[in-house]
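Side project, low priority. Logging it here so it doesn't get lost.
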Amino acid sequence: MNVIIPVAGEGVRLKPHTHFLPKCLLYVAGKPILGHILDGLKSLKIAKIVIVIGSKSDQITKFCENYDFNFKFVLQKNRLGLGHAVYLGSKDISGPTLVLLGDTITDFNLKNFTGKTNILGVKEVENPQRFGIVEIKGDRVISVVEKPEEPKSNLAIVGVYYFTDAKNIHRAMGKIIKKDIKTRGEYQLTDGIALLINEGEEFRIIKINDWFDCGTPDALIETNRHLLNLHSYFPRRKRVNVIPPVFIPDSAEIVDSVIGPNVSIGENVRIKNSIIQDSIINNNAIIENAIFSNSIIGQNAIVRGSFKRLNVGDSSVIEFP
């Protein structure tokens, strides 16, 4: 099986964290998003993994050196949509191919995505207008529409696609691009899938319940909460109160602090005299005398606060800004 992972997006909604770091390398639950995706492929027999890259590509290629896969890197110079990215990634490959979005993590056995029928991973959502939506008959897909104003179902495509032959989706997207068919200003993968369905290609669905979006700061923190419940880790330390679930690597230096719940800490982070919950702290950050929650701290960032000493009389009211 081949795998295509598009990671060329700029991550605009995750700025300022993506000014210097690709979105797929942002940490969540102890490792980069791309790390979660690649770890999920270790149980499969993979012929080639095609990473569709954009800016900051050197950081992505260096990270992939940690994995013993056969990688191919394809540059998407212009951000023309997911369909365009898959068109570039599927060039010169053939046979069964998975497409996994680089900003989405699924907790699902990908071995189920195989066989002689194309498959779309889906999940029921409350706001189908935001997603590519499938209409089904039984478990067979009869139509797909990108972000429909009047959805015919609430089954959203969650970033897992299986094509029995990469050549088919490459050919379909080639037609879409040649005819300049765009939806919301981009070449959409759903339009290529719709073309294949109209040509008689069969698609069925597999429902995925554990699907985690990493496209916004709030979504990243929510994903961090879910994944920490599955992958909590921390070494015991003196003068540190840990409230699981958390992920704290051995390289982190923490003293006189309260960490957790739902905190993910990167490598070589230093924390002193602080209270942190529901947050993600990226590599090499320094936190001192701080109290915060629902926060993302970038790589090499320094956060220093100040504790106050009080002598407050009876019936007093003290309010800090």
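Brief comment: Helices lie at 33-39, 57-64, 82-89, 166-178, 189-198, 217-228.
Revisit when time allows.
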